[in-house]
Write a structure and sequence with these properties.
Blueprint: H1 5-9, H2 16-32, H3 36-47, H4 52-77, H5 82-105, H6 110-145, H7 171-188, H8 194-203, H9 209-234, H10 239-262, H11 265-283, H12 288-319
Helix pairs in contact: 2-3, 2-10, 3-4, 4-9, 4-10, 5-7, 5-9, 6-11, 6-12, 7-8, 9-10, 11-12
Length: about 325
């Protein structure tokens, strides 16, 4: 095993364009708790011609430094469920390291990464469909009751959000989610946010949006650290890439997390859906231009449907005695 790390790392050369790109991605990570690997790695592959294994390795090492910044903000705000974090990490930390070894045993891991990314892309599309369906049903219910669906539940962005709601931790399902997520992260760098946060959405629907983001960010810290250690030993870590990623991502994730900890839940849920859709499209190999048009169409459709629901709610309210 070759561990000549200083020679492999070399002197870091900062890429300003990569710094700017990582800042934008990190803001999304801080806001939504997801999108790091699903956006950062494709960005390096598509726009900077970084080899796949180097992109995965450098992204994970940068994430191991970036994630604690956002996680610390949420910990200070009280928007983290530490019991969930513990059960997720019990499965994800060892599985992430094993995922790196699995990718190495299967060669350079590119074929495996491609299969995992396609599967995850389909899963994210299904999750977006599920979220859209739930939102539409809720809007119809509010319209029938004469309630404005544009209103947000108080507390998601207020002091009330500092107290995490009590949830009945489902230990075995949570442990399995951590194991599957950790394995996927170790192989492809994707999933510490996107895959696990989708599972948490369905396992724990009573968690507020910013508490969901905070819990996911904190559980990702040891998960990504484990995968990063594996890639430092067995991957293709590049110090210049990682230094550029960190210069942009640390302030970006801090800014995003500060906004997320205070923002209304409706805004965070909308951003979650957009990032899920964007991540799914990129994982499935959809071009950047096509992805942008699809996102614009989805946002316009959602805004139109929401406006229709609000009009119906007003009509229903005006008809009520």
């Amino acid at each position: 095993m070759d561990l000549d790390l200083p020679a492999a790392w070399g002197a870091p050369e900062i890429d300003p364009a990569l710094v700017a790109g990582s800042f934008l991605v990190a803001v999304v990570v801080g806001l939504t708790g997801m999108g790091g690997g699903a956006l950062m790695t494709p960005m390096m592959l598509l726009f900077f011609d970084v080899p796949p294994l180097a992109a995965v390795s450098s992204d994970l090492v940068a994430s191991a430094v970036m994630k604690p910044v956002g996680g610390l903000v949420h910990l200070r705000r009280g928007t983290v469920n530490l019991r969930l974090v513990g059960w997720l990490c019990a499965g994800s930390v060892p599985a992430a390291f094993c995922g790196v070894l699995l990718a190495r045993l299967l060669g350079d891991g590119e074929d495996v990464q491609q299969v995992v990314k396609y599967a995850l892309g389909v899963a994210l599309l299904l999750a977006v469909a599920g979220l859209a369906g739930k939102a539409w049903l809720a809007a119809r219910r509010d319209a029938r009751a004469g309630v404005d669906p544009g209103g947000d539940t108080a507390g998601d962005g207020t002091a009330g959000a500092h107290v995490a709601p009590e949830v009945d931790v489902r230990r075995i399902p949570t442990l399995l989610v951590g194991m599957i997520g950790g394995l996927v992260v170790g192989v492809s760098s994707v999933g510490s946010g996107s895959l696990i946060i989708v599972a948490l959405l369905f396992l724990y629907p009573t968690l507020r949006a910013n508490q969901l983001v905070g819990t996911d960010l904190v559980q990702a810290v040891p998960l990504v650290a484990s995968a990063a250690l594996g890639h430092l030993l067995f991957g293709d870590f590049r110090l210049d890439l990682t230094a550029s990623l960190l210069l942009g991502s640390i302030p970006g994730v801090y800014l995003g997390a500060r906004v997320s900890a205070r923002a209304p839940g409706a805004i965070i849920r909308a951003l979650l859906a957009v990032v899920l859709l964007a991540s799914a499209l990129k994982l499935l190999g959809v071009g950047t231009t096509a992805t942008a048009w699809i996102l614009l169409a989805a946002v316009a459709t959602a805004a139109g449907l929401r406006q229709v629901a609000r009009v119906r709610a007003r009509v229903k309210a005006s008809e009520s005695p």
